[in-house]
Specification:
Keywords: Hydrolase. By secondary structure, this protein is of the alpha/beta class. The protein contains 7 helices and 14 strands.
């Protein structure tokens, strides 16, 4: 399977809107380093047989899919219902047109309820009209923690603490994804045992109430011992070159468009 980081920024991206000249607030990030330009956090998993799973549909999803040449998939997994992870849902109508069918949206019942409240029209039944004038997805409730099947593959979901709300982590074979989390229950560490590559939330250097920070993530690395740890959901405090020069062996910063391959997970 091929995993592509579509976006690795926080809820406001980098640069954030504003600045003296109106061209953005970069914080500690060097504006001359292209890998500091970060759209909102999302990933895409492409299996060797062509099946695909999109994780989250943030407000930048159209540009992200175009930039990475992604035009077909049957599954979306929503980690949680914050706007930076769902606000671009309507953009998948172009995918509907390509595949000629609805897309299955997987999330916990509470997340699906909130997404449906904001995008009620997207969840209306598909009819045999020759054009998809709107996005069409079909809700598939899944547990916060447990094994499910997406696009024919076994996926292990695990609970995360995102401050005031829970969020969902995902393990797919030797790969795991943990955006928007500040704490992990013991049962979630059990799911992560033996993982090869783990993409994990690391918003800033200092402690945060809803997102993991650098010291916290390095503690998790020592416990989980992944071969490769990739930091995502990076805020304006996290300059790419600084991370390249500072992070310990086996830990690296994500950037939009970073991709890698691993063996496919088990088929259901």
């Amino acid at each position: 399977m091929k995993v592509t980081i579509l976006g690795c920024g926080g809820s406001a991206g980098v640069p954030m809107l504003g600045g003296e000249d109106g061209r953005g607030i970069w914080g500690q990030c060097d504006p001359n380093e292209p890998r500091n330009i970060r759209s909102r956090a999302s990933i895409f998993i492409r299996m060797d047989d062509g099946e695909g799973i999109l994780v989250d549909t943030g407000p930048d999803i159209r540009a992200q899919l175009l930039a990475n040449g992604i035009s077909a998939f049957r599954s979306i997994f929503f980690t949680h219902a914050h706007a930076d992870h769902i606000a671009g849902l309507d953009e998948v109508r172009g995918i509907n047109r390509t595949i000629g069918q609805p897309i299955t949206a997987y999330a916990t019942p509470s997340v699906l309820e909130e997404v449906q409240t904001r995008f009620n029209y997207v969840f209306q039944p598909w009819t045999t009209v020759p054009h998809f004038f709107r996005a069409v997805v079909e809700a598939q409730p899944v547990p916060l923690h447990g094994d499910v099947v997406m696009s024919g593959y076994k996926i292990s979901l695990f609970e995360q603490n995102h401050g005031r709300i829970p969020s969902g982590g995902l393990r797919c074979g030797d790969f795991a994804y943990s955006t928007d989390t500040v704490e992990l229950p013991e049962a979630s560490f059990d799911v992560l045992a033996g993982v090869d590559t783990w993409i994990v939330d690391c918003f800033q250097k200092e402690p945060h109430s809803a997102h993991a920070w650098l010291e916290k993530v390095l503690e998790w690395k020592e416990r989980v011992q992944p071969r490769r740890l990739i930091l995502t959901h990076l805020g304006p405090d996290m300059d790419w070159a600084w991370m390249r020069d500072t992070l310990p062996a086996g830990v690296e910063a994500a950037y939009d468009g970073l991709s890698f391959t691993l063996p496919d997970p088990e088929k259901a």
